[in-house]
Amino acid sequence: MERNTAVALAYWLALLLILFTAAGMRKISQPVSIMLGFVYVLLVWSPFLIVKYIERRPIISLGLGMNSPLRTLLWGVEAFILVSMFFVIEVWYKVNFGGKLLGSVAQPIYSLWIELLSQLMLIGLPEELASRGYLFTRLRESWGALPALVISSVLFGAGHLTTGDVPRAIQAGLSGFVYGLAFLRTGSIFAPVIAHIMQNLFSSSVARIILS
Questions:
Q1: pTM score of the predicted model
Q2: How many other C-beta atoms can be found within 10 angstroms of the C-beta atom of residue 124?
Q3: What is the rounded distance in angstroms from the CA atom of residue 121 to the CA atom of residue 164?
Q4: Is the Cα dihedral 131, 132, 134, 136 positive or negative?
Q5: Which one, of 48, 70, 59, 51, lies nearest residue 186 by Cα?
Q6: Are the beta carbons of 38 and 121 closer than 8 angstroms?
Q7: CA 207 to CA 91: how far, in whole Å?
Q8: Contacts 24+ apart (CB under 8 A), 146-151
Q9: Are 139 and 147 in contact, with CB atoms under 8 Å apart?
């Protein structure tokens, strides 16, 4: 295993530790949970620092290039369509077998602009930088594309287990695999970023339309 791969795995284990600790503290100490959430935000953006000061490589190695904007956009939209179907299946399962109400698992977005800002600053963009741009690329350097896709997707899904929601974690893991494929086919982090943000913004609406 190369040094950069080991650092990337250690980084992701630290992210998971923060996520699970914050989830566990939420009912015990709200201030501590908020503090850990802040630490998570700092960590999720830290691949820039790791690449620049530890690896001493250009940050474009995180997949920040874009050889073909049209190809990147098309792969992003195609990936969004596929992962939206994963979300629809998750919602269908929860409604039919988990006794959940459709509106509770496919909640509407009340402010598109606020949600878009949160996706760019806290969720879609930094998560893709951390998981596909950083973790996947460093795993691929040691083990090749397919093992890197599988491992990064499993770790991405594990990050969604903090609330004990197994169907959500499975859906996230499968979506992570698709995001990884989009990144692999385009060489640009912006393809999975487009898919990830579109999924978080619009998949609930797609699910309500299909399942209502």
A1: 0.94
A2: 22
A3: 25
A4: positive
A5: 70
A6: no
A7: 7
A8: 148/180, 149/177, 149/180, 149/181, 149/184, 150/177
A9: yes
Q: Which of 185, 191, 38 is nearest to 129 (CA)?
A: 191
**Mean pLDDT, the chain, integer:** 92
> pLDDT tens for residues 36-87?
778 888 999 999 999 999 999 999 999 999 999 999 999 999 999 999 999 9
Give phi and psi for 57, each to the nearest 5. -120, 160
The position carrying tokens 């992210």 is 15
In degrees and rounded to multiples of 5, residue 12 shows phi and psi of: -70, -35
Rounded to whole angstroms, the Cα distance separating 6 from 25 reads 28
Four-CA torsion 71, 60, 197, 75, nearest 10 degrees = 20
From the number of C-beta atoms within 10 Å of its C-beta (0-12, 13-18, 19+), residue 111 rates as exposed
CA–CA separation, 174 vs 150, rounded Å?
A: 9
DSSP alpha helix (H) spans, the chain: 3-25, 30-44, 47-49, 69-97, 102-105, 112-121, 124-128, 137-143, 145-158, 166-186, 190-211
